[in-house]
Design brief:
Layout lengths: L1 H28 L3 H30 L2 H25 L5 H21 L1 H18 L2 H7 L7 H18 L1 E3 L2 E6 L4 E2 L1 H19 L3 H20 L3 H19 L3 H20 L1 H11 L10 H13 L22 H9 L1 H24 L3 H25 L17 H24 L5 H4 L3
Antiparallel strand pairs: 1-2, 2-3
Length: about 450
């Protein structure tokens, strides 16, 4: 019976996730308001159904009643989260963005629970606690009018936090990325991503003169250099790419993209020469099979998992995702592709794309240059991190050691990603306050 249920479930997962993905892009169009609302409601139903089927399979395979309690708590979390946003912010928040956030969290809860119940419980507790804080962030953005003027507060706070990691950080996989406080460890660079975007948005929104571009480059470069000295090259790459695109958006001059591409190429060559773990990752990327016993083992196992899953997947508990080192963090996409299949994995990528497009849509709707740049910067941060994680898992690019936002296991990552989503919701809420009254009907479920 378990075999039959697993086989039937893997087809159900694919059908449901494909429909959810279609509705994600249908909701972005938003031309037919009745159809728009229906698509959003169907998204919610699909998310709950995928979550239910997956946890039923987890229980069948583990016979652990704790799984049922965790499932019930997560259902309660989703219902409360959706209800609070609807009650507190009415038509002003972005339902497509909230739906995608819940869907990505649902996939995360499922795959992490499949791999480790203890990690799933820990991740859920962090998510629930942070979400409670996030309920208030849109309100703070709406009522706090001085956020665009705290330029140097964002900058100095970010540099200090990175500096503390450089001096006191704990080395993990060759990089200083976390601070250990005894009862828990956190990665300040995840928090600094938010401060960094706020700093650049504040600085570049006032003026886009060449002098200000140079000054912004100095302080952005200082962030990147500290990360390089900490050997946190994945974060350094994200900071660099986000800076280049924010300058391009602020100025509208394509030459900055060319300059960024040239600078990034040069920096990559220098990093290859200076850092041994970069050379190891490049070697594993170029030919993982030649070093499969050592440097290439992680990438090779990731490719084995994806290839084994093929298009339809092995089915839950039919694969061997545990064979991939650090599978719950850097390579969680591979475990999803193995047991849920290529169609499901591609749909996940498309959901991430629709999330990014929602970020951009909300940012462009705001009248304030500061909030436009903030939304665009956070959207780019989300997109670059997603590309780096999935690209490393499928051997499209060398592995950078960054997590898949909202899906991978990791307290600091999910905490800061949830705050980022809440900030974007705050931008959405504050946007509707500035629009003419006649447009209110069109703003529903933006």
């Amino acid at each position: 019976m378990a075999e039959l249920l697993t086989s039937m479930a893997k087809y159900a997962f694919i059908i449901l996730i494909v429909f959810y993905t279609y509705f994600s892009f249908a909701a972005l169009r938003g031309k037919n308001q009745n159809g728009h609302r229906a698509a959003l409601e169907l998204q919610g139903m699909i998310m709950f159904l995928i979550h239910l089927i997956a946890y039923a399979l987890i229980f069948i395979n583990t016979k652990d009643t704790n799984v049922l309690m965790l499932y019930a708590a997560q259902v309660g979390y989703f219902i409360i989260t959706k209800s609070v946003f609807r009650i507190c912010y009415g038509k002003k928040f972005s339902r497509p963005l909230l739906n995608n956030m819940c869907m990505l969290l649902s996939i995360s809860f499922i795959i992490i629970a499949r791999l480790s119940y203890d990690k799933a419980l820990k991740q859920f507790v962090i998510v629930a606690a942070v979400t409670f804080i996030c309920f208030f962030i849109p309100l703070f953005i709406k009522i706090l009018k001085n956020l665009p003027y705290l330029t140097w507060v964002y900058c100095i706070a970010g540099i200090i936090m990175l500096g503390v990691v450089l001096v006191m950080g704990r080395i993990t996989y060759g990089a200083k990325i976390s601070i250990n406080l005894g009862f828990f460890a956190f990665q300040p660079s995840e928090f600094v991503k938010i401060l960094y975007v706020l700093f650049l948005a504040s600085f570049l929104s006032k003026s886009q003169s060449f002098k200000r571009i140079v000054i912004s480059a100095v302080f952005a470069g200082l962030h990147v250099i500290i990360l390089v000295f900490s050997s946190d090259l994945g974060s350094a790459l994200i900071f660099f790419i986000v800076y280049v695109f924010m300058v391009y958006v602020a100025t509208g001059q394509a030459r900055w993209l060319g300059a960024g591409a040239a600078g990034g190429t040069l920096a990559s060559l220098i990093a290859y020469k200076l850092f041994s773990h970069v050379r190891i990752r490049v070697l594993a990327y170029r030919d993982p099979w030649s070093v499969i016993d050592n440097e290439g083992y992680q990438v090779a196992q990731s490719l084995f998992a994806i290839g084994t899953g093929s298009w339809l997947g092995m089915g839950m508990y039919k694969g061997l995702p545990e064979s991939i080192p650090v599978v719950t963090q850097d390579f969680i996409f591979s475990s999803i592709a193995e047991e849920f299949g290529g169609f499901f994995a591609i749909s996940l990528i498309l959901i991430c794309l629709s999330t990014f497009l929602t970020f951009i849509k909300i940012a462009m709707a705001h009248q304030s240059m500061f909030y436009k740049l903030t939304g665009l910067g956070m959207g780019m941060t989300y997109a670059v991190q997603t590309v780096l994680t999935i690209g490393g898992a499928i051997k499209f690019i060398p592995s950078t050691g960054v997590t898949l936002p909202l899906v991978s296991y990791g307290g600091s990552s999910v905490l800061c990603t949830l705050i980022t989503f809440a900030i974007i919701q705050g931008i959405s809420v504050s946007t509707t306050d500035t629009l003419p009254e006649k447009e209110d009907d069109d703003d529903e479920d933006r």
